Queue: 2 jobs
Job 1
Amino acid sequence: MGVNSNRVEDFPAGACHETTVKITAESLPPLEIHEVCLPPNKTTFQTLKHRLSEIFFPDDPLHRFKNQSPSVKLVLGLQYFFPIFQWGTNYSLRLIKSDIISGLTIASLAIPQGISYAKLANLPPIIGLYSSFVPPLIYAVLGSSRHLAVGPVSIASLVMGSMLGESVSHTEEPILYLKLAFTATFFSGLFQASLGLLRLGFIIDFLSKATLLGFMAGAAVIVSLQQLKGLFGIVHFTNKMQIIPVMSSVFYHREEWSWQTIVMGLSFLIFLLTTRHISIRKPKLFWVSAAAPLTSVILSTILVFAFKAHVHGISTIGHLQKGLNPPSANMLYVQGPYLGLAIKTGIITGILSLTEGIAVGRTFASLRNYQVDGNKEMMAIGLMNIVGSCSSCFVTSGSFSRSAVNYNAGAQTAVSNIIMAATVLVTLLFLMPLFTYTPSLVLGAIIITAVIGLIDYRAAYRLWKVDRLDFFACMCAFFGVLFISVQIGLAIAVGVSIFKILLHVTRPNTVVLGNIPGTEIYQNLRCYREALRVPSFLILGIESPIFFANSTYLQERILRWVREEEDRIQENKESTLKCIILDMTAVTAIDTSGIEAINELRKTLKKRSLQLVLANPVGDVMEKLHRSKTLQSFELNGLYLSVGEAVADISSLFKAQP
Amino acid sequence: MGVNSNRVEDFPAGACHETTVKITAESLPPLEIHEVCLPPNKTTFQTLKHRLSEIFFPDDPLHRFKNQSPSVKLVLGLQYFFPIFQWGTNYSLRLIKSDIISGLTIASLAIPQGISYAKLANLPPIIGLYSSFVPPLIYAVLGSSRHLAVGPVSIASLVMGSMLGESVSHTEEPILYLKLAFTATFFSGLFQASLGLLRLGFIIDFLSKATLLGFMAGAAVIVSLQQLKGLFGIVHFTNKMQIIPVMSSVFYHREEWSWQTIVMGLSFLIFLLTTRHISIRKPKLFWVSAAAPLTSVILSTILVFAFKAHVHGISTIGHLQKGLNPPSANMLYVQGPYLGLAIKTGIITGILSLTEGIAVGRTFASLRNYQVDGNKEMMAIGLMNIVGSCSSCFVTSGSFSRSAVNYNAGAQTAVSNIIMAATVLVTLLFLMPLFTYTPSLVLGAIIITAVIGLIDYRAAYRLWKVDRLDFFACMCAFFGVLFISVQIGLAIAVGVSIFKILLHVTRPNTVVLGNIPGTEIYQNLRCYREALRVPSFLILGIESPIFFANSTYLQERILRWVREEEDRIQENKESTLKCIILDMTAVTAIDTSGIEAINELRKTLKKRSLQLVLANPVGDVMEKLHRSKTLQSFELNGLYLSVGEAVADISSLFKAQP
């Protein structure tokens, strides 16, 4: 047999033997039986290196640098850390037009949303504007997504408000609350940047989409209900985040409901929801919903000013200070009883905002067929939050709704973020007095319209159709957030997701395989009606790695299959069972408990004069079976490259020695 | 094609189509391509029922009851809950001789060990004897192992002493401490019995053997070092369980070292270790080590009495009350500040003693080729502890060392436990005054000899050889116990084991497959030097279910494989890549994130004019792909039953349309 010139790698001779050809008593042509090979020898160091590189560098980030001159490497390195050098060099005036249009569009959305989300986090409204100015500039330099619109996001704002509000009241101790918010933002950024730097980005993968779906829907319901405070003009309202206290707050203070506020609030809510509906129906009309919030703010401000409605009990934002972000590094809370709270809040909001930012970045990248590097994005978002925390910003990330508008408005590069920041700059410097008469109710309507899209019942229905366990995880997150708390809802959902993995590993499938006539294919008898049992053989497919968590179960389950097969054979008076073949194709790993289980099983079956045969163990499993000297305990005919070869060889032996 | 009469189950027609025969342009004989089938339709309820029965009843405990008359069912039911009715009916005088010999042997071991382990748990010595009387009787009725010797066990005693001792001092508040010990025993039994009743036995599978190895070795080291207190005659000794305070206690109080105690203690320790060594070398001489502890107790008592050594500072057990177990149900601590502690201690000692008991039972059952039902054993051990807690016993289980002696001494049934209990009864009623002069040092020597066998460095070396990650988990448990605490060591070890599973799922292997010439077998190119790449194809084996935790990784990794393959092709100037085949054999499950990843991948590859083909998706995966309407988005040639058929069919298409 010719040696294959395409092989990936050389490996020491002797690890694999040549094909052996057996000529058996009755079968013609001779059976060609292929020996099962061990993977090439590797030292512990090589194995460790390979494993670590798969864990931390699965995307091989340095592949561009291979075989390049030092100067090219320098340029590539700069481009790697500052993507602006990558797209900036090709930037042309042709692109700037689209970027200006999209930048202005998202600015008109970002200004009212910024103010609203700051309110959601119990922070002064101006912090929301500050947070729409500095972070987008940082992201434009460091970020690798071309469509991400950066600024405050609803979920992270909500969670920050909820977590900090549990311990510190924003009305009684506003300065401490503000300090804690900046500190949480700092730790959130630090955590995000470290995840990226240490290439631990896969941690956010543990928030499955199903979990997030339920979590976000729950948060959206809570947030929307909380806005009833503004929409109904209620003054005394709970600080809690569960559905029961919020709803009882709404109905307990019925005497505070103000009909003027309700009428005005509902009108704007209906207006905003209608524009949202139009834009969803016709994506070309994206500007309708994009312009609506600013229009509502302007209209409502004019109305309040014209009718002097603020004296009739409609609450307004009030005076906002002109000027750019003041530095806030001196406001970071570095020691004291609340430091733990700030760190915890930072980490949780950090994970949540990162998940949203990266998911959004990836979505639009895949639409335009470019790559977003998760670990790099984490560093960009992290640095943006660290800098933000020192310049009076709270947690920011890429917002889904604004990024969608950005994309639809034709954004080409991160320049649209710069244009947005410039617009916010102009607002901060000159337009602040205009917000004095803006009513709070319009902010409530803007928040509801923004978060209502997070309740994606169609996706939940799809989960139900496709995967019941995913749906269950989703519902756990949803009801956990609604009835217990935002953090615990999240924790439950992550727990359910991990439990699902462990359950799959603890109780793996085992299936009986049969031969599809005329082929070498062995398939599940329950699925394939043409598949046939092979007399005297029981062929079992093990559909999972064999770990300590399932080794006992698998041992018992296999013995039960054998017992059931023997009962069936007795009933149908077929030829007796002689050989159990385990198809190990899907056993992608094994640990020491698993090896012990295989050994036990072999011994138990041998006592009942049944032969145990392993078919197609993968490389890693072979290596461990070899190292644990299990291979030696299997007899000559105990290991085959495929089920087909095992059946052919062993049944020819049966014929030879009846 | 004839319909197979051996099929497992009927399923609705239409789920699977007949084999299609394609006659392609150039290939002769015609290619026979088999369609991939969907598994038979199941309702949600059927799926749920199947899943739950696999989780909770994998061993199908009711299979004996099928097709039996009601009276037989009653007998079988009685035998199921009280195994004594099973073996009791066949019990003969021939067996009783062996049972008496083995029962007396383990009694001679159980009496000194009982006293010693009570000391380990900081309990009065007599509690150890009480615990060797009632529990073995209960187990003899309910237990299904024939060789388990029941009584106090070292690890559980140690953990109980360590956990309770952290909050309550056994010298200052002995009554409260005793109450808490009985309460912990009660909860331990309740927890064990509920695990069995709810068939949640698989929870103990999460303590892998590697973890337990490290944990037990660490505990053995700590326990042995603590015995230096008795062996050196030190009076002021730490209550802590970490290595550093224990060792500093030993050397800090050097002035308390008593040479008489040290000489006597070391002599007995050497004697016991020598007998242990002899019995290990020659298993037939098991009685040498079995008789040694009682011999040492008798010898040392005589020595102390003869030389009046107790007045020379050798501490003795002192006066023990004659009589049977007093009832202690009134001493259960049902409310108060320490209830949480008692429950926690109960659960942890419960898990540990259960793990030991079941592992020991299974070991000897497999040597004699009978089955031990895990869930039934849990109920037996649990009830034994509940009853024990009401009759002045602390946590008991099956002890490894005594069971081994029992087995070697020829025990045939649980009658040996009854004989042992009878011997303890005689001791309790008549022989208690004899222990008055027994020195504490001999108990220390007995404990060291008993636990030293738990330090199994050979097994640890085997772990190192076979599986480095298992070795790492083992070391984490070992050093965690030594340097932090018993509970945290255990928690770390369980954490490492679960992390190992998650790591395998998060970063699964992907391998490039090649064809082994002359066969339909496709194997890893790195392992099989005879395997050949198929031109224009990239065949990837995915070695894991596709879950939310790895869907992003797999997507990126597959794109990297494609990139690397394209680079390689360019370098070698081979024919261009046209088709990516994913071998899904080992993808035993998929969730909604996984499905999305497959869809994204298909779209991304399509943009690069590459075709994505799935080969051999298993039933569950097919079902989900179908339900999520992903199958429809794959074109006509997107799904095959095996890699071989995919390559054959698609390459014939390539030839037809070049």
Job 2
Amino acid sequence: MKNFSQWFHNILEEAEIIDSRYPIKGMNVWLPKGFKIRKYVLRELERLMDEDHDEILFPLLIPETELAKEGIHVKGFEEEVYWVTHGGMRELNEKLAIRPTSETAIYPMFALWIRSHIDLPIKIYQTVNTMRYETKHTRPLIRVREITTFTESHTVHEKYDEANDQVQEGIAIYKRFFDSLAIPYLIHDRPSWDKFPGADYTFAFDTLMKDGKTLQIATVHNLSDTFAKTFDIKYEATDGSHKYPYQTCYGLSDRVIASLIAIHGDEKGLVLPPLVAPIQIMIVPIVFKDKSEEILSKASEIKNILEKDGFRVNIDNRDIRPGKKYYDWELNGIPLRIDIGPRDLKDNKMIITRRDTSTKEECSLSEDFPSILNSYLTEINSNLKDKAWKFMREHISKIDSLDRIEKTVLNGNIGLIKWCGNDDCGKEIEEKTNLTILGIQYRIDGDCINCKRKAKHVISIAKTY
Amino acid sequence: MKNFSQWFHNILEEAEIIDSRYPIKGMNVWLPKGFKIRKYVLRELERLMDEDHDEILFPLLIPETELAKEGIHVKGFEEEVYWVTHGGMRELNEKLAIRPTSETAIYPMFALWIRSHIDLPIKIYQTVNTMRYETKHTRPLIRVREITTFTESHTVHEKYDEANDQVQEGIAIYKRFFDSLAIPYLIHDRPSWDKFPGADYTFAFDTLMKDGKTLQIATVHNLSDTFAKTFDIKYEATDGSHKYPYQTCYGLSDRVIASLIAIHGDEKGLVLPPLVAPIQIMIVPIVFKDKSEEILSKASEIKNILEKDGFRVNIDNRDIRPGKKYYDWELNGIPLRIDIGPRDLKDNKMIITRRDTSTKEECSLSEDFPSILNSYLTEINSNLKDKAWKFMREHISKIDSLDRIEKTVLNGNIGLIKWCGNDDCGKEIEEKTNLTILGIQYRIDGDCINCKRKAKHVISIAKTY
């Protein structure tokens, strides 16, 4: 893709996902078509979260005193917090922060809720809007000032090991989620200087955009007992002693939808994974004067049968040329199109076109066509997944020499390099290359690419959003 | 109910709907059980809205210049707007309002979206959090500073008459919605001094709480072309001329859930209409040592059969006394409880207890019990509806003399009085009685209760939240 940035901007506009002309920079309007995709994406995420978390909803605003309690945390966010200072004509007694994330809103309540070990574990999540005063160049869904769709989870446990296990559970949920959207990912143990403010350690999911930049699409943090101590969250253990519990938090945002669009889309427009396509099958009746009634009634019949089987299906009976219809539904990324014309009617068949491959197949209407269509949808999902993973894998490049990092990465690749694990050396690598270390992929022998001491880790390095 | 206010406060806490201990007054936390009720309420509302509206999502913040454009509108809200003045450490160039409602966020975009008559009508809605800096005494779900669940609709039409029709469509949707929740309502044409700031006229839905105060639970407004003129929204008509379109807006909030809880609840706790009960049927196995396995397996069998039929059902197999279980599920308002013990197992039957009437019925397991349970749920809904409407109707009282208004109303009634339609006279009635005129119920002959001129309307007068 020659100009990914321009393509991404255009597709959001043409497929009517987002209107970025709202009169505040970095804050955008979800249009009906975009909103529907968002809805199905959230539905899948909620289904996975609900297996082992309770959904709750906390207030938007956080008192300054609460936000400021955890020193490292507030330092990480103080440059990006929007402050509410007035109610009506009056100045408020205390400034209120619009949540940049909800740790400091939720944890004071945890201190009230948690009394005993029988109250643990707690596993909750919420989907909310949050705000960050971004000073960098904003871009819809990727770098925004209002994150409209932040799904954040917060858990509390008796033991540190249970928090470790929960981090792995969070990672497992997100893997299932991204797999269902056919989005490829690398999981990185973020370097210490890039972990969540206040966290013990941070794992992040990164994916690769078509312009060779990586996009962080989810993070999972072990908070240890840092916040518990700050917010005085304590539980009575079985032996009667009072202890600080251990916490995790993990979250993802609108960027999931950005990557969904960016990774699968092509020059014709969106290509939606069937699970989140608001319409999975579009029926286009090819109408001629004398046969029109018969064809429309057959189209309705097919639609009814498919809807009964749970497909999301629609008929495009607008009075315009079929070519214009094809154009629209390709742009909108509908996974399957069914054409049915006078000749098909005679032969009792229909033509099925796949959005992902543009291939056409005849399908007899006397066969069990819902199960045939269902297997097409399954194939589309696995084809999208294979293609996307292949693209990402082909753009991961092992690099043995510092000199070659910048060129390889700027050529659209994620670099894999050996690193000693020393923070100063890591920051030096970033400075020398003007790139970002994503974190540890795995541990290994060899020499550090920079300081030549014994390497402990293989780390990814990339140009990031 | 002796002390409705205390009862309402307690039930929110005991049934774990809302935690009101959040450290900002008037901003509350939705707990898991409350959130689930909210989810099913929203699901029904969205189902109705989606029939003829597109769901969208607008930003939280509104530039001061946009909010201030419509003079009457801003005057109505300026005392209650929260203002964002700083991003990080910097003062913003322009103050940003947290939306008190979204007209001034949405309508500048309408000006971009609407070009021609073929772009009309537009019918959109969104469910968002909004803020109002309430100076009055706050109360969870009823009078809050963060309205967490504001579902607002906005429509645009070519003709004034179409906007009138849309007002009626909005009213029709809300009627269906409240009927499905068994919430009774009166629809009032609000007096001119109490209409939505900027509206031509306002219809409101009011319901009656058990302490005799009315609660406004929905409003529907005809905005005429006032906002179109302010925001320069124009369309090209078929004759080529450029015209201002006509608009409506309508919305409802968390108060729907407040009235759901307050109207149906009793001394034992919540009583939930089956449509929005997160669990509709709770199975309580009465376990004795030797038969426990058989009973639990029968309970699972019943659960599976019911789930296949679409019921939301659960088994309470906690190791505690049945009495404690009954207490919990009554408190949580589960519509139906199934008890099954060793003797029932022998007789191949179960005992069904209704939450609304506390009546118990035997039901043979060899019968088609899912359809029997389904008819119980239907009966519960109509019983709740009948009871609630009866209560409200019994507390509407025709009043012929000014002297008797205050006493009748403060006795827990909505007063129906004759009114000439003159604004000054209406305000005088409010002042004399210290009550609120809800608006016109219907038109009639007779004399005004206050000024004795010819009455035009029968209006409701009440003590309101």
